[in-house]
């Protein structure tokens, strides 16, 4: 389990997060909702140890040890937490298989090259999510949805128990949005992996998340099970607009602006 206590983060004296407490349990999907600038991406980076808060801490509790994500080595934390960023900037002149086998780096020594078993883990990860046919394609030549799947496969090969995704459906079409989130849901259920996502679309959060955390002005406005938290009152307060909830085929509510 990951426990974040009293997380407070500022950038150049500008407060971004204020006194946030979170608990992340394996096998569940957590969706952070909030307007632009609410602190979603910053929160994910603090949980992952990429940003250090001015106050508070984030600890991973395993069966045998407790790890402070801001004090342990990046390699050690990477064995527990995998991170899929919002954007894939830069040029990656690698084949898909080479991108996925990079997920094994936390398990390698300094200057150690991947071994046969590392490539086998990468191939299995590609097979598990059904994209083994892409193994010899250039990462830069495949579609945006396929790139997301490759990066998720890399995290699977990494063997992490916590999967952090920063707006995983941004820039994807309708089909790929649902395909990626269904993939995340399957991974979470089958492998008992916790998925922690920053999300823009409350309707996708309603259908795919188990637990919602609403951030507003860097504070945790509301959190809890989807049916408990995704109310018209909370959504109106979160987005500063009138909201109407209608039925969805997934059995939950559809979020619409109220006219």
Strand order of the largest sheet: 6-7-8-3-9-10
If helices are DSSP runs of H or I spanning 4 or more residues, what is the number of helices? 9
Low-confidence stretches: none
Strand fraction equals 25-35%
The chain-level mean pLDDT equals 90
So, the CATH homologous superfamily?
P-loop containing nucleotide triphosphate hydrolases
InterPro entries: AAA+_ATPase, ABC_transporter-like_ATP-bd, ABC_transporter-like_CS, P-loop_NTPase
Protein name: ABC transporter domain-containing protein
Pfam families: ABC_tran (PF00005)
Keywords: ATP-binding, Nucleotide-binding, Translocase, Transport
Describe the structure.
The protein is α/β, with parallel strands linked by helices and 259 residues long. It has a single domain, classed as P-loop containing nucleotide triphosphate hydrolases (Rossmann fold). It is built from nine helices and twelve strands. The strands form three sheets. Strands 6-7-8-3-9-10 form a six-stranded mixed β-sheet, sandwiched between helices. Helix 4 (116-128) crosses helix 5 and helix 5 runs parallel beside helix 6 (174-191). The relative contact order is 0.16. The model has no long low-confidence stretch (mean pLDDT 90).
């Amino acid at each position: 389990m990951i426990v974040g206590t009293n997380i407070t983060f500022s950038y150049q004296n500008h407060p971004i997060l204020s006194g946030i407490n979170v608990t992340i349990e394996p096998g569940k999907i957590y969706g952070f909702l909030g307007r632009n600038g609410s602190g979603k991406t910053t929160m994910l980076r603090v949980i992952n140890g990429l940003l250090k808060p001015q106050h508070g801490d984030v600890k991973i509790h395993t069966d045998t040890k407790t790890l402070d994500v801001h004090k342990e080595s990046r390699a050690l934390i990477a064995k527990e937490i995998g991170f899929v960023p919002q954007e894939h900037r830069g040029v990656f002149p690698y084949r898909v298989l080479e991108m996925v086998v990079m997920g094994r780096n936390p398990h390698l020594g300094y200057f150690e090259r991947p071994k046969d078993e590392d490539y086998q883990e990468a191939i299995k990860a590609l097979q598990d999510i059904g994209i083994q046919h892409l193994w010899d394609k250039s990462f830069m030549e495949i579609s945006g949805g396929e790139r997301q799947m490759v990066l998720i496969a890399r995290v699977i090969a990494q063997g992490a128990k916590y999967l952090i995704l920063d707006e995983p459906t941004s820039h994807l079409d309708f089909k790929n949005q649902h395909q990626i989130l269904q993939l995340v849901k399957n991974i979470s259920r089958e492998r008992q992996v916790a998925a922690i996502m920053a999300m823009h679309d409350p309707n996708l959060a309603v259908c795919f998340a188990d637990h919602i955390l609403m951030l507003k002005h860097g504070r945790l406005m509301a959190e809890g099970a989807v049916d408990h938290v995704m109310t018209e009152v909370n959504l109106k307060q979160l987005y500063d607009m009138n909201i109407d909830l209608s039925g969805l085929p997934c059995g939950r509510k559809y979020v619409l602006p109220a006219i």
